[in-house]
């Protein structure tokens, strides 16, 4: 969902996240984690994605199914776990892109 930034409230639920739409480069891609991948979380230092998933207590058999969202080749969100440091919503933000994870059973896919 793309929205104007005036009076926008940043989502607090783990399944929703907001980005400065003008700061995102390239198309958005949703994919599985890659071996050896690194990630810069919001407010933190660069970490290996595998370490982040282990620390979040994601079982080994589920780690390959965690959605990774990237923009322009950079990871911007590890679905429901951590938001990346890129494209923060600030007072200067004009357009906000809000992403939400919706289970396939609840989506409009296939209807």
Order of helices and strands: EEEEEHEEEE
By CATH, the topology is Phenylalanyl-tRNA Synthetase, Chain B, domain 3
- Helix percent band: under 10%
Per DSSP, the total helix count is 1
Q: Point out poorly predicted stretches.
A: none
Radius of gyration over all CA atoms, rounded: 14 Å
- Known CATH architecture: 3-Layer(bba) Sandwich
Annotation, overall tally of beta strands:
9
Shape: globular
Quote the distance from N terminus to C terminus.
20 Å
How much is the average pLDDT? 86
Query: Numbering strands along the chain, what is their spatial order in the largest sheet?
Result: 3-6-7-8
The CATH homology group name: Phenylalanyl-trna Synthetase, Chain B, domain 3
Structural class determined from secondary elements:
mainly beta
* Proportion in β-strands: 25-35%
Q: Any idea of the CATH class? A: Alpha Beta
Main sheet characteristics: 4 strands, antiparallel
Number of structurally distinct domains: 1
Q: What does this entry look like structurally?
A:
The chain is mainly β. The chain has one domain (about 1-100): Phenylalanyl-tRNA Synthetase, Chain B, domain 3 (3-Layer(bba) Sandwich), CATH 3.50.40.10. Helices cover about 5% and strands about 30% of the residues. The protein is built from one helix and nine strands; from the N terminus they run βββββαββββ. A four-stranded antiparallel β-sheet has the order 3-6-7-8, with no helix packed on it. Strands 1-9-2 form a three-stranded antiparallel β-sheet, with no helix packed on it. A two-stranded antiparallel sheet has the order 4-5. A hairpin with a 2-residue loop joins strand 6 (about 70) and strand 7 (about 75-80). The longest helix is centred in the middle third of the chain and has 7 residues, at about 50-55. About 20% of the residues are buried. The model has no long low-confidence stretch (mean pLDDT about 85).
């Amino acid at each position: 969902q793309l929205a104007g930034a005036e009076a926008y409230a940043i989502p607090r639920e783990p399944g929703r996240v907001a980005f400065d739409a003008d700061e995102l480069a390239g198309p958005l891609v949703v994919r599985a984690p890659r071996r050896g991948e690194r990630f810069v979380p919001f407010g933190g230092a660069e970490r290996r994605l595998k370490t982040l998933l282990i620390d979040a207590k994601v079982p080994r058999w589920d780690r390959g199914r965690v959605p990774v969202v990237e923009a322009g080749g950079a990871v911007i969100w590890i679905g429901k776990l951590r938001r990346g440091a890129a494209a923060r919503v600030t007072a200067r933000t004009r357009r906000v892109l809000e992403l939400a994870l919706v289970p396939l059973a609840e989506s409009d896919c296939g209807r």
